[in-house]
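The instructor's notes for this session suggest beginning with a concrete chain rather than abstract definitions. Hand out the sequence below and ask the class to guess, before any prediction is shown, which regions might be ordered.
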Amino acid sequence: MKNHVYMPKGVCSSMMKFDIENGILHNVEITGGCPGNTKAICRLLEGADAKKTVSTLKGTLCREKGTSCADQLATGIELALSKENI
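After discussion, reveal the predicted structure:
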């Protein structure tokens, strides 16, 4: 299982951690952000397909930020997948 850390940009959360094993997400953690929303996202993504998660979350916006915690998580997962050539 490969551990990943992503430092999001332009959002309230400050760090995102997750593992990917065989294209599946595990142990998703978001530090900061709206606690209820980020905890829910983390629970929902346990065991989720990483590629499908990217396509689902990418482009989700929060207020006028041009991004969101969900969008930034998608970016982090996408980067991790590209590094692992998945």
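Then share the key points. The first helix runs from residue 35 to 45. The mean pLDDT is 95.
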